[in-house]
Amino acid sequence: MKHNIYFDNAATTKVDPAVLSAMLPYFSDEYGNASSLHYAGLNNRVVVDRSQAKIADFLGCDKSEVYFTSGATESDNMAILGVTEAINNGSNKAKRHVITTKIEHDAILEPCRELEKMGVKVTYLTPNQDGLVTAEKVKAAIEPETVLVSIMYVNNEIGTILPIGEIGRMITQLNSQRENKIYFHTDATQALNFLDCNVEALKVDLLSLSGHKIYGPKGIGAIYIRRGTPFKPITFGGHQQAGVRPGTYNVPAVAGLAEAVNSLSDKKTIDQQNDKIKELRDYIIKQVLLRITGSIVTGTKEERSPNNASFVFEGVKGEDIVLSLSEKGLAVSTGSACSSGSLDPSHVLLALGLKPELAHGSLRVSLSKYNTENEAKVFVEELEETVSQLRKIMNPTPL
Ligand SMILES: Cc1ncc(COP(=O)(O)O)c(C=O)c1O
Fold first, then answer.
1. Is 70 exceeded by the pLDDT of residue 336?
2. pLDDT tens across 198-245, in order?
3. Which of 68, 218, 276, 365 has its CA 20 to 30 Å from the CA of residue 10?
4. Does ligand 1 have an atom closer than 6 angstroms to the CB of 71?
């Protein structure tokens, strides 16, 4: 019998029914363009304004500092390129320095590589073996020309929580003694469901988020840009969103994103939900280590996202585990870049210092509020059997 167990929620989540019903009216009932002057447009403009206000409420900022995007990839590109290109230190454009980490999502790493092509210096910090980058480490990398620091809040592969508040406070303190301000961005895509994302507490100038990681729709995200932050748009067009991010408002998706974010504001419910998710995570980690020899947990034990259990297995390939489990109706993922057609081991695991042969055996289990104890039990049993079968295929007993 095929199962139907979805443990790949860091890739995307199921849309919450409340989110779906918040979106539905704006497809074919109230479909006006939010920028139109007539009644049909104004109704939708109100929805956009209210949605901005809900997100601003959650982030602890002004609604004019929230811009809608197509997702975290676009938000990250805007943060990296938009801020760095807006800052021109004197006449020498090359004299700008950006700091990030080796474990960021490609949505950060790729625009950073583009900056390098333009002559901007980029430092990619190496985390410790748990995937942590301390505020001291960031401080030590800061140079007189540093204009931007971008560090993710929660790593999408190994679930490590990075000390964004501490780094933010350190940068604020340094800024009080510097002539040229260092702007601080965090990619909070994987953090919203679990952690405080108040921009004042974190002391960030920019923050990226995405709808489809928080039980919202795909193709919508947002970026917080603190008022006064230098910013050069990366797309050009109409005057929507003050020209910072032009394009017709995707009102159903905007309404859905706002509903998804708003439902994270009920702290008591969210804490209970996350305690349950954490229990499932801890059960899976414990059982896997107990039952599968040659299994290692990647990332850290304490500073870990409640929904992430990530492993490497000696002597098996992550892709083979994912495909075998998928045949049985279980969805998980591997850290390898198989989607790009290459079977390179994950850049995150290599940055932790794992040997490539071991990094090839990576598996990420990411849970949601919809998962159950029984699913976790079935998963562990199927994983144990799958790893053992794959090892037999890889190392057949000599006749
Ligand atoms: C940490 C992180 N940043 C950025 C992204 C990109 O998000 P989106 O799919 O909304 O473009 C993801 C998605 O996997 C992510 O996990």
1. no
2. 999 999 999 999 999 999 999 999 999 999 999 999 999 999 999 999
3. 68
4. yes
307 vs 326: CA distance, rounded Å: 20
Do residue 289 and residue 221 come from a single domain?
Answer: no
- Within a domain: residue 399? no
- Tokens at 323, concatenated: 């495909």
* Same-domain check for residues 148 and 235: yes
Tokens of 239: 């005057």
Residue ending a domain, among 229, 262, 295, is 262
* CB-ligand 1 contact for 107 (6 Å cutoff): yes
pLDDT digits (tens, 9 = 90+) for 65-84: 999 999 999 999 999 999 99
Do 241 and 355 fall within a single domain? no
Ligand 1 within 6 A of 73 CB?
yes
Q: What residue numbers bound the domain in which 350 lies?
A: 5-13+267-394
Quick check: is 134 in a domain? yes
The single-letter code of the amino acid at 283 is Y
Q: What is the pTM of this model?
A: 0.96
Catalytic status, residue 338: yes
